[in-house]
Amino acid sequence: MDFAARRPGPDVTRALAMAGVVVMNYVGYSLLRGAERGSGALDRLFDPWTGPLSTRFAATFVVTAGIGVALMADRAGPERRPEISWRLASRGLVLYSGGLLFDFVWPGTILPFYGAMFVLAAAFVWLRSAAIVAIGIAAALIGWAVRWWRLERELDGVSTAWLTDPPGRSPRGLVIDVMVNGTHPLLPWLAFFCAGIVAGRYLSSRHWVPVVAGTGFVMYFASVVVGAAAPTGARASILLSDVSRDRGLVYAASALGTALIAVALITAIADRFEDSAAIDALRRAGQLSLTVYLAHALLYNLLVDWLEIVAPDTLIVSLVFALVTWATISALAVAYQRRYGVGPAEWVYRRLTV
């Protein structure tokens, strides 16, 4: 699609979500490498596992991915449906297989999960919106049910290691990992992707921003109310948790709610200031999100592990390192996009899948 014809909202949202992804990843990887773990308000805010920002940026990124898939499908006529489905499936397979390889460099990468969503989208993107909503709800419910089952087994003293710690990269381990046991499993993360597809279908609607923001607010408010009213006890603390690792309905509603609010507000601002230099730069950076994502991981390994130029041993250092890295890579991405139109990672990705 011609650059000038694209609405800026999804691309700008993607670029800003990537900033948050870089920050949370750098903080998390630094903690895993022995960085100082404080107990202050800032430390709790940026805790990559239990903090209020945990996975929120990644969830927003997945919603924008769904929007992108919806726009791709909307541009295709009935005669091109097989072509688009094959394109989605092939891109998903490339992302999944490439992501498994990249996992050796950047453990916990979202790319395999992202790829699995594209493969599934090839089959259901043509369904009615109600059916896609049902798929998303089912993903969230099943993810919650699996977590509940695990909890009951653990409380009964029965091991669930076959599910939580499957053997390496065996076929069974890979399936379990992408479905329920990985960093961004389809149960419930497919719900975020489905929400993006449905939202993307109505992107040109006059009332899109208030409807999407309102839906997000209702979901987030409901999650807050349920979480606050939850009784004490082992079961409630996990089953009604808003922490990502617990895969609960409260978490899914909270994360999706904040993602929808963010997408709607950023889209409104991007549309309002579409001709500004800042929106233009973010828009271009968002189109090279795969390149930016790969580069942020490689730069961390290069500067921290291999050359030992940066020592992110405190939260402040990690935050500054992350923001400087994101800003630098994004600026280079903008310049590259202006000159070549497509990023290096995106070029390879398309050549392998088109």
Describe the structure.
With 354 residues, this protein is an all-alpha fold. 74% of the residues lie in helices and 0% in strands. It contains 16 helices and no strands. The protein has helices at residues 8-32, 41-45, 56-75, 81-102, 111-124, 129-155, 161-164, 171-181, 186-201, 208-229, 234-239, 249-272, 277-287, 289-306, 315-340, 344-353.
Strand and helix map with partners:
Elements: H1 8-32, H2 41-45, H3 56-75, H4 81-102, H5 111-124, H6 129-155, H7 161-164, H8 171-181, H9 186-201, H10 208-229, H11 234-239, H12 249-272, H13 277-287, H14 289-306, H15 315-340, H16 344-353
Helix pairs in contact: 1-3, 1-12, 1-13, 1-14, 1-15, 3-9, 3-12, 4-5, 4-16, 6-9, 9-12, 10-12, 13-15, 14-15
Briefly summarize what is shown.
By secondary structure, the chain is mostly helical. The protein is built from 16 helices and no strands.
